Amino acid sequence: MYRDITRAFFLLALLLLSASAHAGNALPVKVEDAWVRAVPPSLGDTAAFMRLENTGDTPLLLTGGTTTIAGMAMLMKTTRKTVQGVEVLGMGPLDSIEIPPHSEHVLKPGGDHLMIMNLTSHPRPGDIVAVTLRFEPGHRTVTVEMPARIDLEK
Amino acid sequence: MNPAEAPVLEPRPAPGRRFSPWTLILTAATLVFLIAATWMRHAGDGSDYQYYGNWIGKDAPDFTLTDQDGKPATLSGLRGKVVLMTFGFTHCPNVCPTTMANLAAISQTLPARDQGRMQVAFITVDPARDTPTALKDYVGFYSPGFIGLTGSADQIAKVAKDYGAYYSAQLQDSQVAGDYYTITHSAYIYLINPEGKFALLYDNDKIADHARMISDIEHILATDGQ
Fold it and tell me: A28-149: which CATH topology?
């Protein structure tokens, strides 16, 4: 009888371990309304925008991304400053974006965004672009296919 | 009973006055209304409409620049249309594409009868790289009807100064890929009315609300830019 209980105990332990390992590897993030801005061929850079939701119980850190259409992608924020009495917009790098549990973060024009640089191909409106996002902890990635658009409403 | 001594049963205006109190009240009210209406018209807005942009209401300084076909172009040559003007450069990585995308959407969402009465003009702050051909490719990507304007460094500097636009060339940060220079610039949108007055100023964020932009444009077109 004790052997049966011990076996049952070990089986249960294994089951629990594998369940938590699953939860640990699965990335609790939802990506919605993602799009890449289609830009004139003379421009070497563009950006990707989307809504990111952390559906998990612990904070997630978005640390960057890659894409097949360009050599480099990095997180950037839009900056505002006043120069000679006039508002001037700019950009600055972001190491990472923390998304608290059960919260969302929006990458949008005029705000934080994933800058895509040194374009190797220029997506036209309607083309589908694959963007891979990197998260910590765990060096986990998710690849999102998103349409290229000139403007969000199109 | 003597009729002359009969009591007066109906109210009558006091002797010496020709008009009843009600006539006086109505006349006074009409006068007040007319004065108020005239006064409000002089305040620069002939109706109760609240503009989305910031009302400026000054003369728009004219300029002569070169358009995307290499031809001279003046602001006064665009009289009769609502002009939406902005400063930028074709290598601008983020702000200008956003601005141009919004202006394209606005020009396409405007009622069909008014689309020919609105003109978008993109003035470069990078005349060294933004030749007429470069501008033609750039603005043409967003709409065949958009105008791109370039000129000599002095001409561009003068227009920017006249409209309070700031720009400054900077070497690109080594952290960001590429070693070309970028230009930090203000990104307001200027609305010039069909009579050539600088009517409204918009912060860059504002033009994302296309409905409200169109509302302002329609009001300018309907009221002859008051």
Answer: Immunoglobulin-like (2.60.40)
